[in-house]
């Protein structure tokens, strides 16, 4: 029996983990990525215990651990003068959740995921221009694409600018926060919501600094995060409350001006940032989805990751939830090489996708809402409100703060 075919749109973390999960289920998978290659520069990502369990379920946890490492000592939140507001030992997290979170350079992680797929799975420089289903065509490149309709019963065909059409039994929309496929199929959805902050991200070499804790420092409308990586580099991020589209001529100077007087080791890290090429400091305004999608599937198209539930990065769960999506989707779908005739019916696939929406929509939206709320705390600017926030965080015992993460780290379940 020929294998069922899936076309994954997008080679980010969500798309690549979905490709692995579907390949493991016996599907023939093609990943279409419009970029000519994976980015060589970028930022880091934390893989929380829930993401590590999901990666284990699809057989690629080793790929993450090969390029990452556990946070060596502790995780916590500080004030701009360096005083800790809350701190949790990574050993306590490992004891409670079965594993400590790990931090990985995003470019190395995506490269490892892509390299572990069968040769030819990922097609770079392959922009998806349209998805056809039955006799209808839904363009995915035009801003006004949402006026199109499709036949939900038809097997889709993916059209690309690079070559022949790709017939599929399933299309996985992992096309990012500004997902053209989401816009095309859910035109009435309000789309993205600017959360009021911009963010800078970069990686710096500083093995001599010996920073052993992952920390986020809260000021007044500004934050600065430090994550140690296994290769002696540090993933740095910073945020500030500014109007959307605000840009400085030199992001390195902007960071030094905003955070150069904050506690050690921030000034030393910013000295390393000053030596970088400005292009190595990424800046993006922060958006999340204004509200949940009505469903995470439409006919034979299914959404995951930022395309499905874009969220603020305040809980470090954006990539983690995309990985969860991939593991759950693959578990619910019929096996790609099944010889069971009842398993291969359209009804079976439709039921699986409906169950995926039921399994993932409420969980991911709850994380999206929680991330937005946490961000509002970190972005406070009023001195009285900031003082009250800091006092409340300091007054919360570390064990209680850790238990507050149970629904995130223990809330992931593989159906069945």
Describe what you observe in this structure.
The chain has helices at residues 13-24, 49-57, 61-67, 90-97, 106-115, 180-185, 251-259, 266-274, 306-309, 318-332, 346-378, 383-395, 398-403, 406-409; strands spanning 5-9, 28-33, 44-47, 69-70, 74-79, 84-89, 102-105, 122-124, 128-133, 136-139, 156-160, 166-167, 170-173, 192-205, 213-218, 222-228, 233-241, 282-289, 297-298, 301-303. The protein has 416 residues and is an alpha+beta fold. Helix 2 runs parallel beside helix 10. The two termini are 25 Å apart. It has a domain at 5-71 and 101-190 and 290-377: FAD/NAD(P)-binding domain, CATH 3.50.50.60. The protein is globular, with a radius of gyration of 22 Å.
How would you concisely characterize the structure shown here?
This protein has 416 residues and is α+β, with helices and mostly antiparallel strands. It contains 14 helices and 20 strands. The protein is 35% helix and 25% strand.
Average pLDDT, all residues: 91
* Annotation, overall tally of beta strands: 20
Our measurement of the CA-to-CA distance between the termini, rounded to an integer number of angstroms, reads 25 Å
Give the amount of beta strand, in percent. 25-35%
Q: Sketch the major β-sheet.
A: 7 strands, mixed
Name of the top-level CATH class of the domain at 5-71 and 101-190 and 290-377: Alpha Beta
* Secondary structure category: alpha+beta
Supply Rg.
Answer: 22 Å
Q: Which residue ranges are poorly predicted, with pLDDT under 50 across at least 5 consecutive positions?
A: 141-152, 339-344
Give the name of the CATH superfamily of the domain at 5-71 and 101-190 and 290-377: FAD/NAD(P)-binding domain
CATH architecture of the domain at 5-71 and 101-190 and 290-377: 3-Layer(bba) Sandwich
């Amino acid at each position: 029996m020929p294998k069922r075919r899936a076309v994954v749109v997008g080679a980010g973390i969500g798309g690549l983990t979905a490709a692995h999960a579907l390949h493991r289920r016996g599907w023939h998978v093609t990943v279409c990525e419009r970029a000519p290659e994976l980015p060589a520069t970028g930022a880091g990502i934390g893989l929380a215990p829930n993401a590590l369990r999901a990666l284990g379920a699809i057989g690629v946890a080793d790929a993450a651990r090969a390029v990452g490492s556990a946070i060596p000592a502790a995780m916590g939140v500080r004030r701009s003068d360096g005083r800790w507001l809350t701190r949790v030992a990574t050993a306590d997290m490992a004891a409670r959740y079965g594993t400590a979170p790990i931090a990985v350079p995003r470019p190395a992680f995506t490269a490892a995921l892509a390299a572990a797929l069968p040769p030819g799975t990922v097609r770079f420089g392959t922009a998806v221009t349209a998805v056809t289903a039955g006799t209808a065509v839904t363009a995915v490149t035009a801003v006004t694409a949402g006026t199109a309709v499709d036949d939900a019963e038809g097997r889709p065909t993916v059209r690309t600018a690079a070559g022949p059409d790709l017939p599929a039994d399933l299309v996985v929309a992992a096309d990012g926060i500004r997902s053209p496929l989401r816009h095309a199929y859910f035109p009435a959805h309000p789309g993205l919501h600017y959360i009021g902050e911009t963010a800078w991200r970069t990686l710096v070499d500083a093995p001599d600094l010996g920073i052993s804790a992952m920390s986020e420092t809260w000021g007044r409308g500004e934050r600065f995060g430090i994550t140690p990586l296994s290769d002696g580099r540090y993933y740095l991020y910073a945020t500030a409350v500014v109007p959307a589209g605000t840009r400085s001529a030199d992001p390195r100077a902007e960071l030094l001006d905003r955070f150069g007087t904050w506690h050690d080791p921030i000034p030393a890290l910013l000295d390393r940032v000053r030596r970088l090429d400005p292009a190595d400091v990424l800046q993006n305004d922060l958006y999340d989805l204004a509200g949940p999608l009505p469903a995470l599937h439409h006919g034979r198209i299914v959404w995951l990751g930022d395309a499905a539930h874009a969220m603020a990065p305040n809980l470090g769960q954006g990539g983690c939830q995309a990985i969860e999506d991939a593991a759950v989707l693959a578990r619910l779908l019929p096996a790609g090489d099944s010889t069971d005739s009842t398993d291969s019916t359209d009804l079976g696939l439709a039921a699986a996708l409906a169950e995926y929406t039921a399994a993932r929509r409420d969980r991911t939206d709850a994380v999206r809402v929680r991330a937005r709320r946490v961000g509002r705390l970190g972005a406070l600017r009023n001195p009285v409100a900031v003082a009250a926030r800091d006092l409340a965080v300091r007054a919360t015992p570390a064990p209680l703060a850790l238990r507050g993460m149970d629904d995130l780290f223990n809330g992931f379940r593989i159906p069945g």
